[in-house]
Design brief:
The chain contains 15 helices and no strands. The protein starts with a helix and ends in an 11-residue tail after the last helix.
Length: 361
Amino acid sequence: MLTYIVRRLLLIIPTLFGILLINFLIVQAAPGGPVEQMIAKLEGFEAAAGGATGRISGGGSEVAVGGSNYRGAQGLDPELISEIEHMYGFDKPATERFWLMLVNYLHLDFGESFFRDAKVTDLIIEKMPVSISLGLWSALITYLISIPLGIAKATRHNSTFDIWTSSAIIIGYAIPGFLFAILLIVVFAGGSYFDWFPLRGLTSNNFDELSLLGKIGDYFWHLALPVTALVIGNFATLTFLTKNSFLDEINKQYVVTARAKGLTENAVLYGHIFRNAMLLVIAGLPAAMLGIFFTGSMLIEVIFSLDGLGLLGFESIVNRDYPVVFGTLFIFSLFGLIMKLISDITYTLVDPRIDFSSREN
């Protein structure tokens, strides 16, 4: 097993290289980079979300003046364009910029944001508590409810309980998380009915003045609505996956044999069925964790004014803040690959019969 883990850790290196290279090539082809946005600002235009185009107002044509390759550079001193390129590092060839980025990443140096006047590492550390809070509690609540519920539905298949819970879960799944978040705000956060929960931030302004219990209560008070909005749509997949996994195992021969030996239903369920049925659930854990932590929470962060990694990544892409884009991409990818490895290791803990180290490459 140790050999397998070491091999998987070594494979992370070329995988990360490939992810960074592909995205770097895509970024080079995308219009509206930081240099073009700065040119647009200097020309008096407002940079759009997809990047500034800097069109000449008279004829609508796009002209590069003074040998510049950037659209909208007309009327600007070529030396000024060169200074802007140097400021953002675009005075170097693309291959050299990619190589320098890799060397810096080996030293865990992700550079500085183009537009936020801060190191990428500091920005990620600053936003991390929000994403961890949303992702951790959402995943924990989802798994603590969905797995027991899925098992209960499997053991009561086609019963009234199974039918009613399935209906409720499907309705919850059909409601988009952001729409449910707006509903929660309207009902419980001072919208039209009750003003029971705060609408922005992870803590109150007087958080530092509160007692320990007060801080804990304030923290969960702020998390209540956004976590509920995140969780509501995540029950369905995991619950039905757990139910179907258990149904597939319940009618197998080894279960019939275990019952024939006189074992209790709980002994059969949790001593024999559980470890086999949970394999599929564990396989989906990395994707679920990544989705909740970094992608699923973006709209929730916007709606509840929570400044986390999802919002940071989205704003960085819109603003073409490449150091932040690649820094967050690197960390997200590394986290996903490690989570996948942890998932494989967990397989062996649930079912010792699985031996990844014996697989042929």
